Amino acid sequence: MCGIVGYVGPRDATPIILQGLQRLEYRGYDSAGIAIYSQGEIEIRRDAGKISHLFDLVSAAPLHGHLGIGHTRWATHGEPNARNAHPHLSSSGRVVLVHNGIVENYHTLHDELEAEGVHFQSETDTEVIVQLIERYLSSSNSLVTAVQKALSEIQGAHGIVVFSRDEPDKLIAARIGNAGGVVIGLGDGENFVASDLPAILEYTRRAVFLDPQKIAIITPASLQIQTLNGEIVNWKEQHVTWDPIAAEKGEYQHFMQKEIHEQVRSMTDTIAGRVNFSFGKISLPEIQLTPEFAQTIHKIFIVACGTAYHAGLVGKILIERIAHIPVEVDIASEFRYRDPIIEPNTVTIAISQSGETADTLAAMEEARKKGSTLWSIVNAIGSQAMRLADGFISMQCGPEIGVASTKAYTAPLVDLYLLAILLADLRNTLPTQMRYQLVNDLRRLPNLVGICLDRETEVQEIAHLFTDVSNCLYLGRGINMPTAYEGALKLKEISYIHAEAYPAGEMKHGPIALIDKNLPIIAIAPKDLWNEKMVSQIEQAKARGAKIISIANDGDERIKSLSDRVLWIPQTPWLLSPVTTIIPLQFLAYHIAHQRGLDIDQPRNLAKSVTVE
């Protein structure tokens, strides 16, 4: 959730850190701060509010130095204000720290330190860590040793970056458990650290991703990585190909709008290199799938949260229909607590845009503990979910900045479609002609998505109908039931309108009591296997005075006659239809929020990467 940026080297650290924090705004935050080592002391500027306010603070009281850290905080302990904003300084002013995560034994440690005479300056759990480090620094005079000892006492998952005025050429970064990512950027006589790549891509493409239970000692000229016990470990440098320009809005008003429009490219990139249209074959080499293993798979679990969970619901239908393997889909935060029965020859697929979602990583660990093979579908290269898995599929989306996920929803739909075909092919459960047809259907997908994107203006016009709406009901069936869930989630996330999604067949079992002229119904009704059933549900809602806005295929006169307005989409092969049915709903949520003047890219209370439970 929170953003971290650090720098050590010959340049002025302040602009590097501030600009890096700007590029991490998408992660969600309610306060921001920066600490710089300057003329023998640690100087801090921090406050509640946006990074623009932090820029103003630094402009009014400039900071200059060659070592520094910065942070954007999403409050967990203590309200968002200057006192609780990061970075946090130890009592003597000797050590400063920024932190992602929650100290689960905060109260115990706080009381213990307070009994020793420590006077706390904030209400945060984070301050416990920096005060612990100072405690051990007093006896060891080694920042690395002090950090190791402090981290051995705290419970929970954490990412931290710390420095001391006693060692002004050194940053210490640590990652404990499944906290948000820590990436070290390697430069020429300078080094960087951040919680996500966009913060440092302007300066370097050479990256080292810090594994859990590791500490990195970073100087301008060197990088050393150790275990928590001080054992030196080898590290691997990766070259990052993302272009920093991709993290800019360009011609669009918001990142979300830009990312909706990037779905043609993400579809093309997802398919490219993985599909052989001539032979009707799919290639997913990173998944490490052999024919022998494919034939032993008895069951698949899909674990994910939020938007990724909705993609998993589509994936269940795709895999069961195409590959004939039973699939269960779990909300990741519930998976490990229900003590799932994982038998031999089970695969668990984790879906996560960031690859750092704490609940999803915990679900992966539970599955592994019970003997499951792990696969992941992730967007962030080098993320923990990618490294933890036995095999992975990269979403090929590029950076997604908007908190409300769009292209990172449709890309895994195609990834799951590809996986289903590959599984079926390796298990010999798919007739050759059918395999060719399913593969060939992918040819049309980028163009079909492009047609949907070209109709943004039509959706924008319908968005005006929602100016005074307080509630909305989304209905879908079959493979587009998850589309209803995802469409409602988008509306809730960025417009703050209460939206409920239901399997349309369940409408008569409760939600029909809500229906009247004041409750708009969004009906997802393409020409698929469930079209006739959707027509019936639309008729029932219309008979009770509801305003009907339908998603329908071009030329569907029956749906048109039953609807007040129609958001038209091109006819799409039904197994791929969730890719096109969601796009008008993404636009609808976007334009409703835009009309309401809301902060679309950074909606209240939300964060892009949820790295705590």
Set down the secondary structure blueprint.
Elements: E1 3-8, H1 13-23, E2 31-38, E3 41-48, H2 51-60, E4 67-73, E5 88-89, E6 95-101, H3 106-115, H4 126-140, H5 143-151, E7 158-164, E8 171-176, E9 183-186, E10 191-194, E11 206-209, E12 214-218, E13 223-227, E14 232-233, E15 238-239, H6 255-261, H7 263-271, E16 275-276, E17 281-282, H8 291-296, E18 299-304, H9 306-323, E19 327-331, H10 332-335, E20 346-352, H11 358-369, E21 373-378, H12 384-388, E22 391-394, H13 407-427, H14 432-453, H15 456-463, E23 471-476, H16 481-495, E24 498-503, E25 521-524, H17 531-543, E26 548-553, H18 557-562, E27 565-569, H19 577-595
Parallel strand pairs: 18-19, 18-20, 20-21, 21-22, 23-24, 23-25, 25-26, 26-27
Antiparallel strand pairs: 1-4, 1-10, 2-3, 2-4, 5-6, 6-7, 7-8, 8-12, 9-10, 9-11, 11-15, 12-13, 13-14, 16-17
Write a structural description:
This protein is α/β, with parallel strands linked by helices and 613 residues long. The chain has three domains: 244 residues, 4-Layer Sandwich (Glutamine Phosphoribosylpyrophosphate, subunit 1, domain 1), CATH 3.60.20; 203 residues, 3-Layer(aba) Sandwich (Rossmann fold); 140 residues, Glucose-6-phosphate isomerase like protein, domain 1 (Rossmann fold, 3-Layer(aba) Sandwich). It contains 19 helices and 27 strands. Strand 21, helix 12 and strand 22 form a beta-alpha-beta unit. The longest helix is centred in the last third of the chain and has 22 residues. The protein is globular and about 75 Å long.
